[in-house]
Amino acid sequence: MLGLFTIGLLILPFALVAVFYAVRRFGIGVEVLGSAFGAGLVLIAVGLAHGAARPCPTGPVTLLPGQHQSAACGGPAAEPWLLIGVILAVAAVGATAWLRRRGRSSARACRPAT
Question: Could you tell me the pTM of the whole model?
């Protein structure tokens, strides 16, 4: 896991430069927002996959009668994944609607009067 994290940090500056160049060269269109929506869906899927996970408590664990010295806990909390995924997906859909509406209104403004 540490290796992937380190590689990601090494590639991040190059990825940011590539994104900056692409935005400057081609602009941001509706198509680009699809990747943000897709990333939001991936985060939602991760949150749903970890929905049953319970983070381990910081203090001592008290077992109920009949548990025979076993308790299950661990895994990431699902709520942050779900929250960020929903925010990203909704923001992508909202930005797409705004860009399309702005494009239509500017096209109407440029039409010659008849």
Answer: 0.61
